[in-house]
Design a protein that fits this description.
The chain has 375 residues and is mainly alpha-helical. It has a domain of 213 residues: MetI-like fold. It is built from 14 helices and no strands. Helix 6 packs antiparallel against helix 7.
Amino acid sequence: MAVVGTATTAPPRPGGPIAWLRENLFSSWTNAVLTLLALWLVYEAVAAVLGWAVLHATWQGRDGSDCARAEAGACWPFVNAWFGQFLYGRYPEPERWRVNLTYLLAGAGLVPLMVPRVPHKLWSSVYLLAVFPVLAVLLLSGGIFGLRHIPTDLWGGLLVTLVISSTGIAAAFPLGVVLALGRRSPMPIVRSLSIGFIEFVRGVPLITVLFMASVMLPLFLPERWSIDKLVRALIMVALFSAAYLAEVIRGGLQAIQRGQFEAADALGLSYPQKMGLVVLPQALKLVIPGIVGSFISLFKDTSLVLIIGIFDLLGMAQTASSSPTWLSPSTPMTAYVVAGAIFWIFCFGMSRYSQMLERRLAAGGERVVAKTAED
């Protein structure tokens, strides 16, 4: 006669913070040593940062002599005195409301486009890509509707960084898609031109490209032609970034199964319909981390425009740190820390948004698969 056993539950695992620490951080003597070493390094780093930024920092002062005392930390009065230049460069102070209004107009189009629950994405895209650039140029440059003309030589700081990065991203993305599709095109001429452009640009440093655009390009133009230095930098940054972005997108295209192409052909879709409705949405979804990584690199590479005399955020920080009024041992480090913190905020924001977008698209794909299985 068989004896039927009764089901038993596993004994509960010990819980609480002590059990978690014992299981994850002190499970062996090697893990315990590494944990203690990591805690010591964190303590030393936090103590050094707090000592420099808070405990030994100078909070009030009128010039660099107030920050030149022994063991002086950060010189925050210097940041307060130059913060306007960090944001606007040499843009005239009475006209800086135009820059602030431009930021508000950009946010009015960007926020609805980035928030998933906000409807009418098409109209937000049309505004951001077609209407806002015209408004931004009119506001920032002036010379019309009674606005004072502000030459680009006076632009600088975070304003230039955002102008170059946003314009480069907006122009490099569609151009990168075209180059990626061109590299996979069955037409030999299109494929050869795309490969030649990508490989040539990727083999040249961005500094060289910017230097050629600023110094050498005017030598090949007629004397009556004059292209603004900032415009030349925008064009070259966009072309340079498009070449790298094209390779990222090509990787996504290669990851799409052949059956997707065949299914689109079986439905009688044209080439633009097949790529725009079937292939590209899947390919771009797969390479979101690579695309955002390219955008972050583009945002940080804007600091290289200093080589051609355009003072972006990092350039203004370098200029401010060499001011005769605020000369002190701690001034340069304070300027670079502030510039680095601003760069980090924007780059970290882009990274976190891309992760949220990945999770949302992955959840959407899981819902589609589940619904298909139910049907």
